[in-house]
Request: fold
Amino acid sequence: MITVKGLTKRYARNTAVDHISFEVQKGQIVGFLGPNGAGKTTTMRMLTCFLPPTAGTAIVAGFDVLEQPLEVKRHIGYLPETPPLYPEMSAAEYLEFVGKLKGLSGPLLRQRIDFVTGRCNIDDVKHKLIGKLSKGYRQRVGLAQAIIHNPDVLVLDEPTAGLDPKQINETRDLIKSLAGDHTIILSTHILPEVEQTCEQVIIINKGKVVATDTVQHLQNRARGVESVLVEVAARNNGALDPAAVQCRLEQVAGAGHVLAKEKHADRAVFEVENRKERSIRADLARTVVEAGWDLNELRAAAMSLEEVFLELTREETVAPAPALETVEKGAAQ
Amino acid sequence: MRNVWIICRKELHGYFVSPVAYLLLTMFALIVGFFFWNALAYFILAGMESQLRGQATPMNINEDVIRPVLSNVSVIGLFLIPVMTMRLFAEEKRTGTIELLVTSPVTDTEIIVGKWLAAVMLYATMLLVTAINFSFLFRYGNPDWKPLAIGYLGLLLQAGALLAIGTFISTLTRNQIIAGAATFGVCLMLWVLDWVSGYDTATWAKVLSYMSVITHFDSFSKGVIDTKDLVFYISLAFLGLFFTARSMESLRWRS
Reply:
């Protein structure tokens, strides 16, 4: 649905977006993740034909952003970071104006306005002036505006920025519910948002794509140093000496740093770094049991996307290489 | 054309739901009404005097009332035009709604012409209100309607040119006040440029004088359509809109 090749945006002094390439399949929700100033907004503006790229191409819904901007604009719905609202209009008037601007008219326009006001839950405020609406409602009117012409592609720039937690959840659910009919790109610097709403992530930093993958894969990959969580308990409800356990675990071949995460009277949880190529889980299990303790739990510690993100965007000079390489470099440190 | 109309209606809606349009209409009606009253009072006084002296001085209501009032209206317009154009693009840039317009399937030209047309229509409404004054002349006297109509055509053309310049200046900034003040300065300059012809007849003075929007209104106020003046106003309007288009294009490269 979206194909981006070598897209670049250069200003007089700096390069905001540097040869980024990615692809988005139809019906997917893709998270565009990066710290502030990474080039997320610039990329989105190029996709929506607001800014022309300095180099490279982007094909949205089958049309080139440089060659056929009007066609691209017809097939794209865009919610900029600040919703583009006119405070002196009522929500209904505004949606009518945007609908007409996008080429709708007559009964179809009426029908679409009814549909989007229902979908975005703004039926009860549609005759109020936008200037008088709360931030959450404004965001929803902005979203309604973006989907009014039933576009193939939806581009949402930080759709949950500045909302309260309840509104954030509502907005996320709304976005998820839109995924079937539209291909969605949303940008954010909030990580849980990507974990919760997106199927695919594109992490960009300093204008370059650092990683492109599914959320699942990226979490796995970033576990370059695999850690294992071990919960050990004393037998027969006796007392457990965490220091002794830690000492034994450190002696296991291939185990790196051992971190005591929780300590209780009768049990303790440790995170053991796996230094070896092969898994050390079997060795850990044997060691614990042979030492006369109970093994309550043994599992791989998943890295949250937050850690992945920090890992990928941390370095000063990040090569525009696939995620794996970058992660390995991080691991080697 | 449909898109131009959509943008134009949105702008007119903006003028008329805020106090801007009503303020402009009221001020314009009051000031023009005052000028009209003055011109008419002088006219009546002169008529009475000539009757007292018992000699018939030639008097013409077109020459003595309509023409000076129309000339005044053209100058008052200069002061109100910045208020009409200052928010057109500056406000959209400030609030970010420009992104909505530019990412919609409409061309830059349609956006620009739509906005400019709305300002021209607001000005036309203001002119219509001033026409009430002149309707009294037709009720009690017998003025020639053609010079009056041509005068109004001239006013509209002059406003079209200045509004195009104002629209252009509005694209240069995101601050309405700056846009308004700069437009006001340019309008004022375009008015006083012709004063150099008062003391100098060199070529440069003639050129400067020619560039003044007010000198080109003279023939219209007399009821004469001079091609030279027609071309001046229309080309100035085109130039203003052309610059607006280039400025909008450059917005995307600079941003």
Notes: Chain A has twelve helices and 14 strands. Residues 316-333 of chain A have pLDDT under 50 and may be disordered. The longest strand of chain A covers residues 15-24.
